[in-house]
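Re: export button greyed out
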Amino acid sequence: MSGAKTGKASLWPMLIRRVGSALLTLLLVSMVIFAIAGLLPGDAAQEALGQSATPEQVAALRHEMGLDQPAPVRYAHWLSGMVRGDAGQSLVAGMPVGAIIAERLPNTLMLAGMTAVLAVPLALVMGITAAIRRGTWIDRAINLASLSMVALPEFLVATVGVLIFSVKLMWLPSIAMVSAEASWSDTLRSCALPILSLTVVVVAQMARMTRAAIADQLDRPYVEMARLKGASLSRVVLGHVLPNCLGPIVNAMALSLSYLMGGAIIVETIFNFPGLASLMVNAVTSRDMPLLQACAMIFCSAYLLLMLVADMVALLANPRLRAQ
Amino acid sequence: MKRSISLLVGALTRAPLATRVAAGFVGFWLVLAVGGPWVAPHPVGAFVDQDVFSGLSARLWLGSDYLGRDVFSRLLYGARYTVFLGLGAALLAACCGTALALWATLSGGAIDEVISRLMDTLISIPSKILALVLVAACGSSLPLLLLICALTYVPGNFRIARALAMNLAALDFVAAARARGERKFAIALHEVLPNMVHPLLADLGLRFVFVVLLLSGLSFLGLGVQPPYADLGSLVRENISGLTEGAPAILAPALAIAVLTVGTNLLIDALKPEDKR
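Workaround output, generated via the alternate export path:
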């Protein structure tokens, strides 16, 4: 505790420890993913050459692909490649995995970013409204709606969206086209349905957790004090309560946005969106292990990064957490 | 068990209308999943209509699918895969997760450290990603799907069960049991487990919702239940070309999943004892 006299002095070691712990988890995750992918019963060389290959040909290709080496050696080789940004050759496309991913990653980031821009403010408004109007019909309606939305299958949301907006009303296209030449408004229009579907999927959980965090603070004496002083409700909530629940709220946002990664798999497939998640589904179907491993690692890194950022924001926002 | 059932019935009779409706829907699906094939008007693979994607009618209640088969009958057959795989996987995940949690808590030390670290690692892999990697590596026969869905949700259950067990293990009656010289297994079974049944049941319901969503998502992607079997997710997938016509063949199975999952979720929330304000 001697180093914790001032908040600043103990902040850096703490942040470094968090980063270290996240990196260790990422290393363990890479081991798990490599181990699972190694369970594959047929091996890649046999698969690439087909049934008619002679055993000598298979053995030669196995040697060329490095499959005849023991698993730890292959793991070390794969990991050092990943760290250098070289994820190997795709077995199906015959291209470097890095090049395929580089083409898809910006699309997925754009989709996730635009969903976040729409979903985060919406969730904040829903959560804050429900918390302030606790016990009223608005709170109950938001509670019921968010509980239901959490459990909706993504493909129902997406298909109903397509049915209403592109089949009946014919406002929006049902297939998301993304190209470098298209103007911003065209891209936005063709991505509107995927973004809306993803928003429905992630907004509910965020709103629920925001409500819980704020409702918890509203019972505190300092809120009553501020109200008795004559501060308006909006001032109390925005100026006093919100900064105090920044940590839990950012955590909720990070959790939900990391869910975007998983949720995007179904939505990207339905709308033929050329993103990373639909690439991963193709990799599963064609059993393209190097591509699959790289995609899985990107999703896991994104998840861990979001959690790390949330942790850091919580640490910065609440000095009491640093005194451990 | 008897007490739980009477509690459940008591809570339901006093519950608001929405809860009873939710309970009704969930019960309805459980009954359909068990008895579906006996009430189905047509065999599951029979071609009964000249038209594909026909609308609702008195003869074919939910219309016909992309090959002219009866959607209602296929729904009744599909529901059993969704419901029973979901229940089986959720139960398996809960049993494994809780057993590991009890073992870790009561052993402490290195065993706790290793198990917790492994579960922390698994929980850092988003569930759909983990399931996809597992499907790619192992394939997707029905027993494998059950195992994959269960494995995917073990870490989540472990985390909750361990937190509950840690709190309980610090209490006096557990210390007394240890002092009496009881074995770890007996302490886990007789002292700790009975006190965490209620929150674990709520978690089981939640896992069931997650598993059903994951499983139908996988089937929708063509990576889950494989033909000739079809669960509700596969029904959505095979009829996707009917979307532009707004065919009931695609909306009915998707809605059926939503009724099951949303109903379960609302029911769990209504039965939660501590959160009532």
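The domain at 100-322 of chain A is CATH 1.10.3720.10 (MetI-like fold). The button fix ships in the next patch.
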